[in-house]
């Protein structure tokens, strides 16, 4: 039957679904439908849908009853989904095995279950995993219209940062960015002319969406496996002509890209400040810096802002445009991002 649905392009589907779910507007009696590049999200009250969303009448399937892991257990298990893998963080091996069995018996589209066996460690920030089900640790993850292949045992990747990555990617060639440029008297820069430098690129969760928005991107990482996946992901997403993967210490690479970047990503919390000199080297005359940090909740932004000013103010006018809390990291500690404008 026809029901009211919010219609959005597929790459906006995840964010739209989350927005509608937060407002308790999704009609769970019907399935979300995909057709011709559009996503149709059934809604209970079309009049309550926020402005800016298109509401159409659409024939969609009624939702069938699905068996969840909680239906098969006496408790609500905690896990993350990454592609067709479920990721657990359980200290009790019996409980971990019980959750894994319930996940596989449920209607979730999961083939692999992994349990964290260590904390993130080493220069490449990888962790050990216990394979509870499936054939390995390689997965294919889809996020905001991009597809990423990766091996969780060989590279660092956090699905929890998907919304944050999308927030930053939307600034590449965005209308909001153009409006900011015009307000300041500068001419807007076309997205296809933007040059982005990711200092700790991993498998490309920033680089790939930047390139899909037309930017010319350089992604640097010391993890050779991550750089191999970055090359593969550039091919998967059809942007290999706009992505330059480099396996090296970014401090060695930055001088080769002196005064080059319009946008720099520094997603290495705890130690990004040690690489600010290289960021200043790579920054162009007018550059946006996305600086990630983890600090105590009493002053989450101050240490990063002071470090950036100390590194850059001899050459640049430094303007902090956004102070953004990404997530809670640990008791009394916050993972934050500073979006900073550097103008020579």
UniProtKB/TrEMBL annotation:
Any one Gene Ontology MF annotation carried by this entry is: tRNA methyltransferase activity
Q: Which GO terms describe its cellular component?
A: cytoplasm
Taxonomically, the superkingdom here is Archaea
**Which keywords does the record carry?**
Cytoplasm, Methyltransferase, S-adenosyl-L-methionine, Transferase, tRNA processing
Known PROSITE patterns for this protein? SAM_MT_TRM5_TYW2
Q: Name one Pfam family in it.
A: TYW2_N_2
Q: What InterPro entries does its record include?
A: MeTrfase_TRM5/TYW2 (IPR030382), SAM-dependent_MTases_sf (IPR029063), TRM5-TYW2-like_MTfase (IPR056743), TRM5/TYW2-like_N (IPR056744), Trm5a/b_N (IPR040601)
Q: Where is this region: Disordered?
A: 169-191
- TM spans, by residue? none
A single Gene Ontology biological process assigned to it is:
tRNA N1-guanine methylation
Where the record annotates domain SAM-dependent methyltransferase TRM5/TYW2-type, the positions are: 79-344
- Cite the PANTHER family for this sequence: TRNA (GUANINE(37)-N1)-METHYLTRANSFERASE, TRNA METHYLTRANSFERASE
Q: What is this protein called?
A: SAM-dependent methyltransferase TRM5/TYW2-type domain-containing protein
Organism of this sequence: Natronococcus jeotgali DSM 18795
Q: What is the lineage of its organism?
A: Archaea, Methanobacteriati, Methanobacteriota, Stenosarchaea group, Halobacteria
């Amino acid at each position: 039957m026809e029901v009211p649905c919010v219609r959005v392009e597929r790459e906006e589907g995840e964010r739209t679904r989350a927005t509608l779910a937060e407002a308790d507007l999704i009609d769970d009696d019907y399935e979300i439908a995909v057709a011709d590049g559009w996503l149709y999200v059934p809604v209970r009250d079309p009049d309550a849908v926020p402005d800016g969303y298109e509401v159409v009448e659409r024939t969609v399937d009624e939702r069938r009853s699905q068996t969840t892991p909680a239906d098969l257990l006496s408790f609500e298990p905690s896990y993350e989904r990454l592609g067709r893998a479920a990721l657990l963080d359980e200290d009790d091996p019996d409980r971990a095995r019980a959750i894994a069995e319930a996940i596989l018996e449920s209607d979730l589209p999961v083939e692999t279950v992994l349990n964290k066996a260590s904390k993130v460690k080493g220069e490449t920030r990888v962790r050990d995993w216990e394979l509870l089900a499936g054939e390995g640790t390689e997965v294919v993850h889809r996020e905001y219209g991009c597809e990423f292949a990766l091996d969780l045992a060989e590279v660092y990747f956090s699905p929890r940062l998907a919304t944050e990555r999308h927030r930053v990617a939307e600034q590449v060639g965005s209308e909001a960015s153009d409006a900011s440029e015009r307000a300041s008297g500068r001419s807007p820069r076309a997205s296809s002319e933007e040059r982005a430098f990711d200092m700790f690129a991993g498998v490309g969760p920033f680089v790939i969406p930047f390139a899909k928005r037309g930017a010319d991107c350089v992604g640097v990482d010391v993890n050779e496996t991550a750089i191999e996946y970055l090359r593969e992901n550039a091919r998967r997403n059809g942007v290999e002509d706009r992505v330059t993967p480099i396996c090296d210490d970014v401090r060695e690479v930055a001088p080769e890209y002196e005064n080059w970047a319009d946008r720099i990503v520094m997603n290495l919390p705890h130690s990004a400040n040690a690489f600010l000199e290289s960021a200043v080297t790579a920054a162009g005359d007018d550059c946006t810096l996305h600086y990630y940090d983890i600090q105590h909740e009493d002053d989450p932004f101050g240490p990063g802002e002071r470090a950036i000013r100390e590194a850059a103010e001899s050459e640049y006018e430094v303007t902090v445009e956004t102070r953004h809390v990404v997530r809670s990291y640990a008791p009394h500690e916050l993972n934050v991002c500073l979006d900073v404008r550097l103008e020579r």
